């Protein structure tokens, strides 16, 4: 049985609003990198006329294509798919960067953005112990409370654990590859990166 989007919750879905809030005015084309079965792509489509979702997992793309949502779903690798450079106003990605080389992935997403476009990433990274233990424990407690109230939807896409890159390493990569980006570490074991490509 398919669960309606508005009844789903997990740590990734919790941070979708951070992405949706930074869609630039007048955005015409959006790309969801690692779209899975398409939940974020469907949310993007409510604000952006042309949305493409790309993922390497065929069963997830098959599920996405079952929805009548007017999103173009592509089975493929965003690192090598022949997208035109600087062709999207929004590039979004949730829980995808730890599946690829993070530096390569960030650079590819950057290069797909038009001037003035926004890159919005929510990702997972590896904690550095013992310093991160208090934050991680707090995140587990808060996540447990959320699940008790909202339930927990398990996405069908493949998982990678542990993430190969630490939180400090991700922050440094964002600063290097996306100068001026806003990096934030979140309580529910996630980080976000928001970056607007400068206009030429």
From TrEMBL:
One of its GO terms (biological process) is methylation. Pfam families: Methyltransf_11. CDD domains: AdoMet_MTases. The keyword S-adenosyl-L-methionine applies. One of its GO terms (molecular function) is 3-demethylubiquinol 3-O-methyltransferase activity. The keyword Transferase applies. Its EC number is 2.1.1.222, 2.1.1.64. Residues 31-120 form the Methyltransferase type domain. Keywords: Methyltransferase, S-adenosyl-L-methionine, Transferase. This is Class I SAM-dependent methyltransferase. It comes from Streptosporangium vulgare. The lineage of its organism: Bacteria, Bacillati, Actinomycetota, Actinomycetes, Streptosporangiales.
């Amino acid at each position: 049985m398919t669960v309606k989007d508005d009844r789903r919750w997990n740590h990734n879905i919790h941070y979708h609003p951070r992405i949706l809030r930074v869609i630039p005015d007048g955005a015409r084309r959006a790309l969801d990198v690692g779209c899975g079965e398409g939940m974020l792509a469907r949310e993007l489509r409510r604000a952006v006329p042309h949305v493409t979702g790309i993922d390497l997992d065929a069963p997830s793309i098959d599920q996405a294509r079952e929805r009548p949502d007017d999103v173009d779903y592509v089975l493929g690798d965003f690192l090598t798919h022949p997208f035109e450079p600087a062709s999207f106003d929004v590039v979004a990605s949730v829980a995808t960067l730890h599946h690829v080389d993070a530096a390569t992935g960030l650079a590819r997403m950057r290069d797909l953005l038009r001037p003035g476009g926004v890159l919005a990433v929510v990702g997972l990274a590896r904690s550095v112990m013992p310093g991160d233990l208090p934050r991680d424990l707090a995140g587990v407690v808060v996540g447990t409370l959320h699940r008790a109230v909202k339930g927990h939807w398990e996405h069908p896409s493949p998982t990678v654990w542990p993430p190969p890159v630490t939180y400090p390493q991700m922050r440094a990569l964002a600063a290097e590859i996306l100068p001026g980006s806003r990096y934030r570490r979140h309580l529910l074991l996630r980080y976000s990166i928001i970056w607007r490509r400068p206009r030429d």
